Amino acid sequence: MSPNKFFKHEGPWSDANDPLMCSDTGDWRSKRPVVDKDKCIFCGFCAIYCPIQVMEMVENSYFSPDLAFCKGCGICAKECPKDAISMEPEGDFKK
Question: What fold characterizes domain 27-89?
Fold first, then answer.
């Protein structure tokens, strides 16, 4: 028997017919990703591995996080093969 007979969705997130729930970060994030545009080779690994898909293309030359939704998990920085993303303390930035 096919599992789709019993379950509406194949995976845990979405079947691409329903919108995903997006919540803004608020003020609880402790670190944010900072992209060094000169080191970025535009490979897209940060966007692929970001669990909430907040990495956006900028001018077809580098990726940058949408900080309104970024949770600060640091996966993008860990997956970047050129160390172009660093996690900086949130307190270093003026609000």
Answer: Alpha-Beta Plaits (3.30.70)
Take residue 33 and report the two structure tokens written for it: 């990703």
d(CA 81, CA 70): 20
Calculate mean pLDDT across residues 51-63: 91
Q: What is the pTM of this model?
A: 0.72
- Where along the chain do its domains lie? 27-89
Kind and range of the H or E run holding 89: strand 85-89
Query: Which residue matches tokens 């956006």?
Result: 56
More confident residue, 16 or 10: 16
Cβ contact 37:9 at 8 Å: no
